[in-house]
Design goal:
Blueprint: E1 3-7, H1 17-21, E2 27-30, E3 33-36, H2 46-50, E4 56-60
Antiparallel strand pairs: 1-4, 2-3
Bound molecules: iron/sulfur cluster (2 copies).
Length: 62
């Protein structure tokens, strides 16, 4: 099952915890909070577990 991991910017508080957890350096902080670079993300979901605000969403794509 492939997943797409993305940030719901309406929930992101820009605490940057997910950035610390991402081993792929796929997350950066933009003007609307965290942004995930899909070309680097391996779908490990660690960032979603790290986010205390439920801002990281996981969508099954296949
Ligand atoms: S951990 Fe959650 S609230 Fe914090 S920057 Fe990442 S997505 Fe935003
Ligand atoms: S799912 Fe894993 S690789 Fe993708 S952004 Fe989150 S922590 Fe990084």
């Amino acid at each position: 099952m492939k997943v797409r991991v993305y940030v719901d910017s309406s929930l992101c508080r820009d605490c940057k915890m997910c950035i610390r957890y991402c081993s792929q350096r796929a997350i950066s902080s933009g003007p609307k909070g965290a942004v995930i670079d899909q070309s680097k993300c391996n779908g490990c979901k660690l960032c979603a577990m790290a986010c205390a605000f439920g801002a990281i969403k996981i969508e099954e794509i296949e």
